[in-house]
Amino acid sequence: MTAALSRRGARIAIGLVVPALFLSWWQWQATAGDARSLAFAPLHSIGSAFVELVESGSLFSDMVSTLSRSLTGLAIGGTLGIAIGVAMAVWRPLDRMLGPLLHAIRQVPLIGWLPLIGLWFGTGQGSELIVVSISAFFPTLLNSYAGVTNVEPRYLDVGRIYGFTPLQRFRLILLPAAMPLILTGLTQGLAFAWIASIATEILLGVGGGLGVTMQVAQTQQRLDVILVAIIATAILGFVINQLFLRLRRHLLRWQAAPL
Amino acid sequence: MIAEARPRPVPESTAAAKGALSISDLDKSFTIGGVSRPVLEAIDLHVEPGEFVSIVGASGCGKSTLLRLIVGLDDEYSGEIRLDGERVATTSLDRGIVFQDHRLFPWMTLEQNIELALLNTDTPQARRAQIVADHIALVNLKGFEQAYPHQLSGGMAQRAAIARALVTEPKLLLLDEPLGALDALTRVHVQNELQRIWMTQRSTMIMVTHDVEEALYLGDRVVVMAPSPGRIRRIVDVDLPHPRDRGAPLLHKLKDEILAELTASPVEPGNLVRLPGREER
């Protein structure tokens, strides 16, 4: 079994076994002919809904809106998270000032922000983006802070021996040493931004996106459309996560390969 | 002090700029759990320019602490440490150090790791690449310039660390058990290399080690230290020209002497293993 996994074809085939079983079970439920067919759309109608959404162009535009909302939120929240996290780690007084407040605030689940932000900024696209940014902010902040505070003192010794200026110390030691955790923060931030995008789209239903389509389809009882949107969300989420991991591997190529 | 009043002559060649180290009446203690514990006591040591001095002693005798003080990473001590008459207060590019762990930055290539040592020197930008290449060749690492530290073996990484320490041409190079983590064969190889480098560069070197043979093979003098608190027990002259033959009878005779001294130390109360629970009976 383990030996068979060394072949690429075999690996892919094994990964497909469970999904195939699941799909056949699904199809069996959908075509059983009783009340179950209300809860399970048959595969062919999901297929035709897919074709319908692709032809009208709405699937593509939904994917673009959700993706751009997530990435914009990640860019805003992630940049702030790295900047504030690193600043707090480098400059202790800032840590003392902001730390308690931020740790209290981050206990609020991201959806908990919606009522307040809705009151302040309305229920438009701007509010969606704010919630997405907040959810990307905290994982990036926490990891960047941990990354910089956990830099090994023995590397800082080397900087002292060679007379590094504070800027050199930051650029050549603190930042690269913290980079693995900063990137971990960004990867988590991406996952949170993705969740927040779909969630706010479903709850606010404005500006287009996979979540908006799901919400509209729910009111129209279009089970097939909901499923297409879910599948698109899963695949798109998987793909950007993979791209991100690849970027991470490239940026951290100096690290020894995990055994 | 008179010497400092006059403008110091600018050395014409690096050969004139060799470091003379003088340590006098040095005491150092650490505060552990509110109690002050002496780690170094009454250290007096004078090292001639261009001399190779080895320091041996049991672990915990303050050898590494002594090097941290000399290099300037720690400045809380009483007494005096002077390099060429100037009091040591903080780190300086005049003093280099090689640690037991190589401490290369894992995020930089070997070449970048060595070049960073030149960052704050007045070496002209145009000459830096050449100097780095020369030092990579000096420690026999040609062809590995673009390798990251995790791609190097332990011996190679330690040689790279030696190159990084040498590239600034420090007057004084401190070696803190630099070969301690290497296997026996690699260690002999790097020892030979270290001797060759020292003979070409002729800068002052002080090496801490727990290997008496290594201390004798490389050192012009061997300082034998006693623990708790760390102090100098004896200084042994090794009157043999370099490069040395490992089989020289003098080295073996001295090794036996030093080992006897280190192991058959009179048992001091501080060193006794005491189990008060048993003494009650």
Give the structure's gist in a few sentences:
Chain A is mostly helical. Chain A contains 11 helices and no strands.
Structure description:
The complex is a heterodimer of chains A (259) and B (281). With 259 residues, chain A is mostly helical. Chain A has a single domain (63-250), classed as MetI-like (MetI-like fold, Orthogonal Bundle), CATH 1.10.3720. Helix content of chain A is 80%, strand content 0%. Chain A is built from eleven helices and no strands. Chain A has helices spanning 8-30, 36-39, 43-56, 58-90, 92-105, 114-121, 125-149, 153-161, 166-204, 210-219, 223-251. The two termini of chain A are 20 Å apart. With 281 residues, chain B is an alpha/beta fold. Chain B has two domains: 19-94 and 170-260, Rossmann fold, CATH 3.40.50; 106-155 and 162-168, no CATH class. Chain B has helices spanning 2-5, 63-71, 110-115, 125-138, 154-166, 184-201, 212-218, 249-263, 276-279, and strands at residues 21-32, 35-47, 52-57, 78-83, 86-87, 95-98, 172-176, 204-209, 221-226, 231-237. Residues 1-16 of chain B have low confidence and may be disordered. Classes of the chains: A mainly alpha (259), B alpha/beta (281). The interface between A and B is medium-sized, with 20 and 23 residues.
Name some characteristics of this structure.
heterodimer; A: 259 residues; mainly alpha; MetI-like fold; 11 helices; 0% strand; globular; B: 281 residues; alpha/beta; Rossmann fold; 2 domains; 6-stranded mixed sheet; 4-stranded antiparallel sheet; 9 helices; 10 strands; disordered N terminus
